[in-house]
Each structure stands twice: as structure tokens, then as C-alpha cells.
Amino acid sequence: MSIRVLGADLQANKKLPYALTRIYGIGIYTGFEVCKLTGIDPNLRVSQLTGQDALNLTKVISERYVTQDELKREELASRRRLVQLRTRRGIRLQNGLPVRGQRTRSNAATAAKSKGKI
Questions:
Q1: What's the mean pLDDT when you consider all of the chain?
Q2: pTM
Q3: How many domains does the structure of the chain reveal?
Q4: 59 and 74 belong to one structural domain
Q5: Do 23 and 59 fall into the same domain?
Q6: With the C-alpha atoms ordered 111, 114, 115, 117, is the resulting torsion angle positive or negative?
């Protein structure tokens, strides 16, 4: 039995902080922070959680962290802003090239495949 938190199904056999990484925007460190804030033992498996624990998790995560669709919207808006301002990063994003100084003479094939995603 898996538990659904903020639109993500948490795998029942995993420990809670690692299962929370299924939520977009939550990593392992944040998963441990959420456990501390809710008072849930981080060694508990998702299958051992109660319904009240799931509600507490949802409440804490939605109050303190930007996750899922809202985070994706912010990231896309940030990229569009860079493109609109015609910054170096924005131009490279627009052309589907590596943005952070990576080599382009070879090994830029993965960036070139996603060309025009903005």
C-alpha cells in the first residue's frame, strides 16, 4: 500500500525521507528536515505511516516548500526571463546549447537533442 502526498505516490517499502524524494523539489536532506518538523521517525517505512502522519506531511511540505507544478512553473518563468533579456545564458538555452560552461566540441549531443524546449 502506498501513500499519496501532494500528488506523488510514495513507495511503501522505502524509509520516509527517501520516499519523499518522489515529490518534485524534495531531496534527501529536505526529506530528513520534513521528518524532523513533523516529529516522524525517519527510520519508519512508508507502509507504517498512519493517515494522520500523511496529513501532517502534506501540511508541512505545502507550507514550507515550493514543490511540484508550482516549482516547475517558477523554473520555466526564470528561463523565459533569461531568454527575453537576451542574456548569454538565455541565448544558449534558446539554442539548446550547454549553459554552464560545458565543452561543446564534443559531448554536447544531449543538449542539442533538447533544442528549442523554451
A1: 90
A2: 0.81
A3: 2
A4: no
A5: yes
A6: negative
Neighbours of 3 (CB within 10 A): 20
At residue 2, what is the residue type?
S
For position 54, which CATH number holds? 1.10.8.50
**Has residue 13 got a pLDDT over 80?**
yes
Q: Is residue 106 part of a domain?
A: yes
Residue with cell 560552461: 101
Percent of the chain with pLDDT over 90: 72
The rounded distance, in Å, linking the Cα atoms of 96 and 108 is 9
Mean pLDDT of the region 68-86? 96
The grid coordinates of residue 98 equal 550547454
Instruction: Name residue 98's amino acid.
Output: P
Distances in Å between the Cα of 28 and the Cα atoms of 21, 31, 59, 81 are 6, 5, 18, 30
H/E segment holding residue 9: strand 8-10
User: Which pLDDT band holds residue 77 (cuts at 50, 70, 90)?
Assistant: very high
